[in-house]
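Minimal example, chain plus zinc ion.
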Amino acid sequence: MIRGLKPIDCDVHPSVPGLKSLLPYMEPYWADTLVQRGMHELDTISYPDNSPLTARADWRPENGKPAATLEQVQSQLLDPFSIDTAILNCLYGVQLPFSEDMGAAYARAVNDWIAKEWLDRDPRLRASILIPVQSAELAVAEIERLAGDKRFVQVMTLVAGETMLGRRHHWPIYEAAERLGLPIAIHAGSSYRNPPTPVGWSSYYIEDYVAQATTFQSQLASLLAEGVFRKFPDLKFVMLESRFTWLPGFLWRFKLYWRGLTMDIPWVDLSPVEIVQNQVRFSLTPFDGPEDTADILKIFEHLGSDELVLFSTDYPHWQFDGDDPLPPGLPDDLVRKILVDNPRQTYARL
Ligand code: ZN
């Protein structure tokens, strides 16, 4: 229990133990060709295996990968934290291949592996549909293939792909997700088609990791300016591992220029602040706020709504120690909203 509640954990990362685990879920052509090519696993390099951030020390097994078996997730997360429901967001790099068909083959295999090896074996688990965002056509096909299975509660992509997420060629994905009652999750990570910063490639992992927050801001600006939220008013976007203390400043700036530049984007006929409050949500952990309780409360006050933040542990990533990932000092009613009410309101299928 966390503060006496059984939380809904919106960001949990099972690891694919290796390419071999996926081969039974691939069509023979893809299984053969990936083996023949000697393809290595597509673990997202946003979380290198040996980085301390990738797994909390007490969640790192002696052999093999963290969070690679149901037993690990049950004994380290679901049972000790009394998790009511956990949404599995598998960070397997299905966005990495340049081949759209190969991306789709990987996405299908990971999704079917998740359904069979995880969802079938513990009723507390739900999952995101991974999509080959390289091709909207193939992404829509994958969403439609799995939408009948209500244990898939959202569609997920990485924050940095080939093109900006507001661009019109992505809209068929949003149309399908809205029609089928699935939010779009955008998780930190990249297919590395573009540098992680707007001014070029960085030298160190820490630069890449810190820069993810600005990538989220760019994508939110793109979704706002291109009119995605107005075109799909019933579609929710969930920013996972985006951090959110940047949001008040970002919205202050965006709203200021929106007022002055309405002629630039007249289709955005609602305040960006209202749009975000209606349609965008953010995962709690990793929390990038200050340590002082009064300052933390100020940040939540500046968000302007107590419905924006969804509980997450980001298990097995090392974002907190001990057994309580909540920032200190949050009042009980806000804690209840973050842990239970907000996830339920965000995910129609929960
Ligand atoms: Zn995460």
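The longest strand covers residues 152-160. The longest helix spans residues 205-225.
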